């Protein structure tokens, strides 16, 4: 049985070599493509008018509702202030 | 009298086996960890409950006609549930940090070393009595080192369905333990000076870049590694829904409705693989040990690659962020941030660690594709 | 000319049978009750519409290749839809009142007498010509007395699929009629003094108790009555999602997305069993009569048990709350409150009635398990 | 046929007896377990710091959004008051 | 060495065919149109992504065991996905404008002329080499002229599944092009005076009318054209959920959860029919040309019927609103409004165009039923 | 082959005639039914107390939340004003 296991282990080593090889090939190629992509966008892409995000961790809920909330509150306070005006 | 006997024989007490009792305890334990310790509750709670349900004697809920068995057949055997979760993960993930600094992909690659080392470890366990892992089993166990739940479930359901329960439990448990497993390894492998490295602020990323990113990743996957296409395809579709900005409705559906509903069903389905015969074996013990090893090796490999990059860039990369390459998003990045702050109260590494962190998700999906291509079939 | 004849023969007018016409009226009637009278509209509206669709001549929508037939096959034959509804019910139900005063479970048990009495009634109907109910049929009819929609659908789909349409319609119709059926029975069986009993305020219930509750119920079910495990399992899972406090996302999904979507599909699927051949029979008439009897007997049994508990506790229990034991949450509890207020304007029984009310849900799920274990096979 | 029906009825009576028996056994046992559970929680459970709910009927939507709303409004009014200060 | 060769042979580059490369470009093109040009992004983005996924070499995602193939089998072959979308459309559509002025249904009928003219055109194409459309194929192509996505998908999946990809792409593309295709035709066929016609304000519509409307439509469909029952049935069910006012939960589920989730899955499933062998044919070219013809003829027929109605009513109907009869809700109505405003800055036709616009939805569902009844099976 | 195509075309023409015929029959009948329905509702239907909508284009989201928002804000401003009172 032990020789069978040893054979498996050798196969596993091959797998590791090839597997890690592909993972690195893939991701290094991706690095290259992303660099090219960013350069292409910088040269030919449209000018961004919106403020771009610097980064962002799993931003789940868009802050849309808050925006609406604040707008409505703003309006309410405006109205309130008008009524209070001496 | 006879009727009462029949009745008694249909109760759980009369039929319960010690395996089932133990598994009920295991299920209870998972629920305890989920609620009291907040160990990845979104999945461990349904998994634990699924373990309870599938070990109720007589009921046969995990069998082919039982509810859990049917959900497993419908959603996990086909691979659809983990892929839908990946769709949601894509829609929830912001890859900006990775686009701003693509070189962090190398860190995400290095951390996958844990996967392949664990694969070897699983094969080596065959020297011990009681272990008989095939190459496919070993590959499925190794993917625990990818620290990515849906990827682990997807691969295990393809390569080693009998081990799925143990693998899923190990994957999510260790993902929850990242804040405990990683820091000592990170501290041991880095010098004080290295942990103190302050990194340049990330450049802003344009909307167009964020839209093109998923398409670039998918094209590369199509050309180099079609076996990873289901996983990478769903991840990038989710991300494109998010970043395109024109299908807000669909993006929200992927982030909420789909992922929430599927999570409940997926957890229950995995629980159906937590039966005594499949789980209460020495193999499970081996899987749990190997899982911890996988995380540790992955972390170490990431940090070491971080040190290499630190050298090569003349000290512009803080090696700690390499630890985030195992994925476990966003926990691992937060751990990096915390360990960094211990050394220097003003050195916030969170954003810098997000790059390798999301790179780790892609890395382990790629590794899963490699394993499917080489071992599956 | 011939073409026009062919065409004419494909129209509904040329093919409609009187059975279909009557069933279209029945469907319209259910929709009328749902919209104009607000009889459990969430289910009766889709059921009524399903009745319309499945009785459109020629279209065959309730057949094996029709949409309704496929939904039925996929969701009701497998039992998955009623179980998912039960998951949502668990996530929507607060068991605090029951935990604070567990003795109200006895009231929930007593009200299940209606189920078994109706079972006997259904069997007795076989003395009349035109009736030929098997034991399984009778059990499925009896469960109408449980006053719990998904439980009735689940049991009927297992024991007597051909009667499912009539049983579901009866169950939901009578649940809607609770405010009319119950009060006279409650008044007839109680004295003025009994209706006047003011109950002690309920003690506060801690979070830990609310988390342990579903697990305790599930364990008991596993040990005593595995046949009820699917129903009790989904109910307790939903409740644990709600009370655990760590999986808010999943709890919301169970309370909204899952229950809403499944309700539409389940209603349509039940409608597919409302075809003329299955529904326009003397048996349906029998089922409708028995359903009313079931509710009345259940109510009476609950109130009588309430009177017994009133005696035993020296007048600390208002017997009216026993009526809530039939379930029909939260309608029955509101009826109790209303009848109580008629007698004493300051005696709010709502919270006290919630205990037996949710106990009734557990009670009828247990009764369904018993029937499955003893009659199913 | 009538004897067959009578046989069925007898079977039904048995079913009723056994069925109600189990239902009561189950629920009475549950009463006991719940009493034990509450005692155990009272003795060994953690002290509750949050106000516990007394009861609650099908409380569907948590009032979270309102809380956020009120917080935002509070902040808005604070800001407003500050601006108003003489 | 051999292993490396095996590996190379499993890459996409080694296996990609020119057809797949072209189809990847087609998929990319659809995504470009969806994001950059906002061409019906809710469907063209998932369809385009589905095209990418299903043309990844080796992966076989569109095959019977691939994810897209399974989704197609489960949701499109059964017809369930387009019907669920139609449920959502019903729940999202307000038919008030149509109820207030039922005569606009005639405009919705006239615009269906495009469907049948295109059917003839498809058959005529068989005179050219490379075309071999059966009657069923031609009917499926003609429905593009209905300007209604789910109807087109439903009919094509029944009559000509192999053409589904091309038909769906054509239908949604031209729906997006409505603002470009329609105005010149509208201007060419109407006089200045006709475009200037100011219409009477619509009368208010009571709640009861809005509730009865879906039931009336369904009854008529049941009596006259049972073949259209699935489409009309789901549309009217959705609308009844919306207007009944008693099942707000279900209405919201149909408008959001169901339609959003199904849209993602439906788009992917359609993408699975965008393989090179099925799409890169002269037939597809024919379908794209015929689609444009269909829209133009439909628009023209609507406008001409508008002119007839204008005469008959003594100038009370603005013929422009006939163009909205093709459906493409609400785009076509907006186009009518815009063309009307060009002529007279104070003549808002939007509300008046909504009548024929939603009439067009019913009209094309009816036409689909006719084609199913006459050509199907 | 051309005769086969011609036959198909003739079949297509039949289809067009019959198809358009049914579409028009269906929709014209529907016009009649809707007119009858509206008359019946006007005569026997209940008096509407709510303001009926004149029309409405795909009104997706009911403005319920805004109503709640405005109510809460109103309450907040009331409270605020009370505190401000001299
Ligand atoms: Na990873
Ligand atoms: Na009950
Ligand atoms: Na149309």
From TrEMBL, chains A, D, F:
Catalytic activity of the protein: oxaloacetate + 2 Na(+)(in) + H(+) = pyruvate + 2 Na(+)(out) + CO2
Source organism phylogeny: Bacteria, Pseudomonadati, Pseudomonadota, Gammaproteobacteria, Chromatiales
Self-association state and partner proteins as the record states: Heterotrimer of an alpha, a beta and a gamma subunit.
Identification of the protein by name: Probable oxaloacetate decarboxylase gamma chain
EC number(s) reported in the record: 7.2.4.2
Cofactor(s) the protein needs: Na(+)
Pfam families hit by this protein: OAD_gamma (PF04277)
Species in which this protein is naturally found: Thiocapsa rosea
GO terms classed as biological process: sodium ion export across plasma membrane
Chief site of localization: membrane
Protein function: Catalyzes the decarboxylation of oxaloacetate coupled to Na(+) translocation.
Family indicated by similarity: Belongs to the OadG family.
Transmembrane stretches, start-end: 12-36
Chain coiled-coil ranges: none
Membrane topology: Single-pass membrane protein
InterPro entries: Na_pump_deCOase (IPR005899), OadG (IPR023424)
Keyword Membrane attached: yes
MF term (GO), any: decarboxylation-driven active transmembrane transporter activity
Catalytic EC class: translocase
Compartments it resides in: Cell membrane
One of the record's GO cellular component terms: plasma membrane
Keywords attached to this entry: Cell membrane, Ion transport, Membrane, Sodium, Sodium transport, Translocase, Transmembrane, Transmembrane helix, Transport
From TrEMBL, chains B, C, E:
EC class of the enzyme, as a word: translocase
EC number: 7.2.4.2
UniProt superkingdom: Bacteria
Record localization: Cell membrane
InterPro entries, A to Z: OadB_MmdB (IPR005661)
GO molecular function: decarboxylation-driven active transmembrane transporter activity; lyase activity
Any one GO CC term of the record: plasma membrane
Broad class of where this protein is predominantly found: membrane
Reaction equations catalysed: oxaloacetate + 2 Na(+)(in) + H(+) = pyruvate + 2 Na(+)(out) + CO2
Transmembrane segments: 16-35, 42-64, 70-93, 105-128, 163-181, 211-237, 258-279, 285-305, 356-375
Cofactor(s) this protein requires: Na(+)
Topology term for the membrane: Multi-pass membrane protein
One GO term (biological process): sodium ion transport
Main function: Catalyzes the decarboxylation of oxaloacetate coupled to Na(+) translocation.
Similarity comment: Belongs to the GcdB/MmdB/OadB family.
Stated name of the protein: Oxaloacetate decarboxylase beta chain
Organism: Thiocapsa rosea
Taxonomy of the source species: Bacteria, Pseudomonadati, Pseudomonadota, Gammaproteobacteria, Chromatiales
């Amino acid at each position: 049985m032990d020789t069978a296991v040893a054979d498996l282990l050798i196969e596993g080593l091959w797998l590791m070599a090839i597997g890690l090889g592909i993972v690195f090939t893939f991701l290094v190629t991706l690095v290259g493509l992303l660099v090219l992509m960013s350069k292409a966008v910088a040269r030919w892409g449209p000018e961004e008018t919106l403020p771009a995000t610097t980064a962002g961790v799993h931003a789940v809920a868009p802050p849309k509702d808050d925006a609406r909330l604040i707008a409505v509150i703003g309006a309410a306070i405006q109205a309130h202030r008008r009524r209070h005006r001496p | 009298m006879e009727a009462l006997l029949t009745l008694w024989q249909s109760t759980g007490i009369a039929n319960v086996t010690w395996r089932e009792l133990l598994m009920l305890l295991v299920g209870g334990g998972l629920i305890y960890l989920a609620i009291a310790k907040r160990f990845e509750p979104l999945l461990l709670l349904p998994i634990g409950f699924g373990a309870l349900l599938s070990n109720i004697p007589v009921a046969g809920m995990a069998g082919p006609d039982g509810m859990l068995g049917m959900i497993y057949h419908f959603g996990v055997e086909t691979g659809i549930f983990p892929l839908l979760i990946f769709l949601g993960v894509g829609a929830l993930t912001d890859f900006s940090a990775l686009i701003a600094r693509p070189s962090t992909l190398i860190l995400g690659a290095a951390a996958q070393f844990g996967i392949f080392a664990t694969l070897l470890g699983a094969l080596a366990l065959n020297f011990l009595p009681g272990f008989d892992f095939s190459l496919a089993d070993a590959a499925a166990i190794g993917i625990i080192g990818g620290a990515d739940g849906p990827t682990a479930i997807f691969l295990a359901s393809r390569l080693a369905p009998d081990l799925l329960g143990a693998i899923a439990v190990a994957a999510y448990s260790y993902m929850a333990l990242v804040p405990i497993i990683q820091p000592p390894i990170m501290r041991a492998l880095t010098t004080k000076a290295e942990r103190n490295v302050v990194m340049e602020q990330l450049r802003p990323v344009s909307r167009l870049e964020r839209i093109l990113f998923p398409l670039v990743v998918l094209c590369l996957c199509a050309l180099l590694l079609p076996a990873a296409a289901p996983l990478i395809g769903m991840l990038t579709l989710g991300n494109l829904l998010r970043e395109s900005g024109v299908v807000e409705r669909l993006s929200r559906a992927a982030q909420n409705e789909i992922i929430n509903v599927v999570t409940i069903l997926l957890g229950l389905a995995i629980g159906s693989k937590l039966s005594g015969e499949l789980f209460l074996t020495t193999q499970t013990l081996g899987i749990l040990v190997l899982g911890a090893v996988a995380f540790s090796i992955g972390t170490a490999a990431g940090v070491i690659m971080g040190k290499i990059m630190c050298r090569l860039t003349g000290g512009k990369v803080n090696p700690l962020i390499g630890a985030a390459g195992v994925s476990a998003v966003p926990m691992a990045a937060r751990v990096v941030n915390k360990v960094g702050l211990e050394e220097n109260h003003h050195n916030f590494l969170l954003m810098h660690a997000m790059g390798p962190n999301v790179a780790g998700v892609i890395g382990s999906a790629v590794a899963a594709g490699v394993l499917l291509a080489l071992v599956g079939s």
